[in-house]
Amino acid sequence: MGASDLRGVTNDAFSAYYKQQLGLTDQEWSALEACLRSPLPVTWRFSGNDERAISLRASMEQSLLPLLNEQPTSLPWYPDRLGWQFGVSRAWLRGKDRPGEGPEGPEAAAAAAPRSTSIKAFHAWLLRESSLGNLQRQEAVSMVPPLLLDVRPGMAVLDMCASPGSKAQQILEMLAAPARIANTDAAARAPVRSLDEARGLLVANDADVKRCQLLASRAARLHSPSLVVTSHDARLFPEAVGEGAAAAPLLFDRVLCDVPCSGDGTLRKNPVIWRRWTAGAGNMLHSLQVEIGCKGVRLLKVGGRLVYSTCSLNPVENEAVVARILTTFGGGCLRLVDARDALPGLAC
Fold first, then answer.
1. How many CB atoms neighbour CB 51 within 10 A?
2. Is 35 a catalytic residue?
3. Range of weakest confidence among 74-83, 104-113, 118-127, 303-312
4. Catalytic pick from 35, 311, 333, 348?
5. pTM of the model
6. Which of 32, 84, 196, 276 would you call most buried, defined as having the most Cβ atoms within 10 angstroms of its Cβ?
7. Which helix (H) or strand (E) holds 301?
8. Could you tell me which of 193, 158, 161 has the C-alpha nearest to residue 175?
9. Largest pairwise CA distance in the chain
10. 145-184 confidence digits (pLDDT tens)
11. Contact 6, 271 (CB under 8 A)
């Protein structure tokens, strides 16, 4: 069963559940369902936010984009126009899509036509710059949590469930001094003499050792001295370093809880979910998500910030978890931050 066939599968339980949970009208649900059944567009971001990244973006705009009939657009909420989206599927960009798997709407005409020489050249450019570490092929929604963390150089950051590592890479770039971001020449590989020069610390944790190896491999291209990779059950992550009287609290300025979830928000790239979805998947993960979130709070410095995220649509995995964490610690300990205006241009 191909992706286009799976996107046509109906799941009455899914529709009834989310229409009620999200409080949507029939018209609103139809619009949401149409979006969920369309392929995920190609997205990427330029590594870092230094002059090198801005120069590469300018080169793309001046040399590559004028040759394309359908234009990629910058994500309006990503700083310095360094996040981009192309309204075609990854399969179409690779020339491997099947009928019915291309985008719909304004981009349908582009998808119906064979790939042009300019599109092939653009795809080759994406692959080359990605392999060099100058840009990251990352979904737009994955770029949001690190931006909301508001990471600054010198901070200690914990990514509790970090694999496969796209968010960890983004955080490392935020910690890095501008001159060192995404720099692949010999200067980037020179030894760093102090933690002050390293400009902070990221502890990237994952419970799966093999996934940690993938995470370390992906982050290695940044040549960052700020990264520590650990493999630990996030619910049991140590709250102190040292032993006995010498033990000191282990606390972080920023904590990212991108927790394990049912993943039903990934329907656009995993259309098999249309056939397999049940409400029980999210319900079973709720307690695990609460435990990880509560551990993250205990590892947070006073005045620090924790961002909780999932790739699920389910309020049981999102709002209900946040409400439980807030109730557990009380208003004197935690404050819920309204982030709707944090990234202008992002629809919330």
1. 11
2. no
3. 104-113
4. 311
5. 0.87
6. 84
7. strand 300-309
8. 158
9. 70
10. 999 999 999 999 999 999 889 999 999 999 985 543 333 3
11. yes
